[in-house]
Amino acid sequence: MNEAIKQHIQSIEKVKPIQLSPCERDTPMIYMDFGNMSTVWKQQAPSYRPDWVKPINSYPGLWARVSNDYFEFVKELALKLAPYFGASPSLESIKRISCNYAIATKSNEELHAYQTIPHFDNLNSNQIALVHYLCGGEFGGTGFYQHKSTGVKEVISANHDRYRDHLDIELSQGGYKEKQYISSHHPLFDRTHYIEAEFGRIVAFPSTRLHSACLAESQLSSDAILDGRLTITSFIIFDRRELPNV
Predict the structure, then answer these.
(1) Using CB atoms within 10 A of its CB, is residue 32 exposed (0-12), middle (13-18) or buried (19+)?
(2) What's the gap between Cα 4 and its chain centre?
(3) Which of 49, 131, 144, 147 is most buried, most CB within 10 Å of its CB?
(4) Cβ distance 146 to 210 under 8 Å?
(5) Average pLDDT of 2-12?
(6) Of 243, 203, 167, whose CA–CA distance to 32 is shortest?
(7) Which of 135, 154, 166, 134 is nearest to 66 (CA)?
(8) What global pTM score does this model have?
(9) What class, spelled out in words, does domain 3-238 have in CATH?
């Protein structure tokens, strides 16, 4: 582990998580700003170019693996974030961590219907998602949404079928036909919160929360990884989450 990475991990102690306001206590949205210290992770990204592949989910671009050092960074970050998400700040409470580089590449014309609306990552209420921006605000940030007809903001087992049934009907009836990345306005969803992209910023939120990258389509390309909408996406599964205690 080089000195820059060691310093970045040590910087976690100095960076205060900021809770987005207004924000629901049971579905917190947090961001932390690490600034130029994140350059070390951006510089590593081209090294993994042979590994850039289409992801198994609906992400509109390519994914690649990250270094083992980044997993160490996220593990330490998980301990810092745990109280904000109602989890125990101990290594024993962390059940799984997954991380990958991501670069958005698809044009509006290439999008399928579910890439033009907000999504949730899965139904596991013990999982949180992290987006680490290795690009600037010109690429757009992360929006959080509420489904208009059902009022759903967080998709859990109890409301999943109702939400999907309503959404499928709306899409089949032409509730939204335009192929474009979602922004602040959408016929089927209201955007409730927005976090601007900023280099070195990390956004954390429950994986059950409806969210979407709000992308500037004209800027997207995989030709130059360091000049594109480059992020690192991570998922942390805790053994249990309750109401936050901070």
Answers:
(1) buried
(2) 24
(3) 144
(4) yes
(5) 79
(6) 203
(7) 134
(8) 0.91
(9) mainly beta
